[in-house]
Amino acid sequence: MNAAVAGALEGKRVAVAEKAAHVGGAAINTGTVPSKTLRETALALSGLRTRDLYGVDLSLRRQCTVADLLRHERAVTTNEQSQTAGLLSAYGVTLVHGAARFVDSHTVAVGDDRVLRGEAIIIAIGSKPARPDTFPFESDKVHDSDELVNLGEIPKTMAVVGAGVIGAEYACMFAALGVKVHLIDGRDCLLPFLDLDVSQALTKAMAALGIVFHWKEQVTACAAPEVGDVRLTLGSGQALEVGAVLVAAGRVSATEALNPDAAGLLVGKRGQLSVDDHFRTNVKHIYAVGDVIGFPALASTSAEQGRIAAGHACGDPTVITMPRVFPTGIYTIPEVGAVGETEGSLKGQGVEYLVGRADYSRSARGKIIGDTTGFLKLLFRRSDLALLGAHAMGEQATELIHLGLMAIQTGTGADLFRRICFNYPTLADLYNLATHDALLKIQQPL
Length: 446
Hints:
The protein has helices at 2-9, 25-29, 32-46, 51-54, 66-90, 165-176, 196-208, 299-313, 343-349, 364-369, 397-410, 414-419, 430-440, and strands spanning 15-18, 94-97, 100-104, 107-110, 114-117, 121-123, 127-129, 142-144, 157-161, 180-184, 212-214, 219-223, 230-234, 239-242, 244-247, 251-253, 286-288, 328-330, 336-340, 353-359, 375-381, 387-393. By secondary structure, the chain is of the alpha/beta class. It folds into three domains: 2-125 and 252-313, 3-Layer(bba) Sandwich (FAD/NAD(P)-binding domain); 142-249, FAD/NAD(P)-binding domain; 334-440, FAD/NAD-linked reductase, C-terminal dimerisation domain (Enolase-like, domain 1), CATH 3.30.390.30. A five-stranded parallel sheet has the order 8-15-9-10-11, covered by helices on one side. A five-stranded antiparallel sheet has the order 18-19-22-21-20, sandwiched between helices. Strand 10, helix 7 and strand 11 (212-214) form a beta-alpha-beta unit. Helix 1 (2-9) runs parallel beside helix 8 (299-313), helix 3 (32-46) packs antiparallel against helix 5 and helix 3 packs parallel to helix 6. The chain is globular and about 70 Å long.
């Protein structure tokens, strides 16, 4: 969508070929928006968000049904679909429904009876969940992450295979609803790309939700009878019986359906396309953005990539390249926000740094909202106190992290945070507290 609107703003005639019934891609239809909406619903129905406000251990407020869980998600998703379609129409973008495939490098056939030609083509087909052969996806008890939003009933027990971002988010969501969740992964820790303190704190928080971790394990067999629980056999020989299975074993690009050979496109592993800084493929008038080019495969970065690609394709002299840093938001319970370097990456580079930390329990706002386990961690370069990394876990962590993003992007850090007058009481003031914590370690006057 962002690429289409950017092209229209440049005065170009733009057409979008869309295979799905609704525009918006996975972000609106099956991924980002639905899953985050389901998370908020789970928090509301479970009472988790208000648990510490009253000093009591609340259980699920009432028996939760699938209708309860999906009602708000359906409303939000439908609204986003409508807004996206309306935006394309407002900018004069032609929407053509049907599966697209290349005829040659300038020509795309859509469906059975439509052919489009373009001076430039932008591929933004996204990705689809990987479906390992081990799992019988024909069963209504075995799901991938795209299907889970159409879950028939809330199970009493669930196995989540894959402890990446998607797997961890859904594991938390269902655990909040009282489902006994087993999280299975071949690695030895949770989300190893995170700062170690955050990864360990999140693991502890998820365990407190009742999630059982099975590290260094693989599912070697999965049997899903029509009646009764699904039986999983792990590499260690352990057997698990659960009411439902979510397979979150990564995603693969959907390039094979595009007939890429007809356009001369070179396709890499997992169906991904290689691009340059302007998101051009090996065919210079064909661009690719989003999941189809791999990391970071975030909704936010994909949108920015689309704008940059369209600007370059239209010859816009003001077009920029992708920002060097971008934030990561993980909607586990509690949520996590991260941007920039971790302690591990700084040690690997031999950079001398200072750590500043501020716990939510030190913040009046943290106490007001009932989150006393969250924290903000800042990493400053010792030589000039520039911010190199910011990491947060807790309520609103994905929002809080953007102050760190702006500081890193502009090359500022401790001097900025200690001179800003933050509103009170806010979580943003944790930046001030964490900065002072770092400065105390070098006895620098405040």
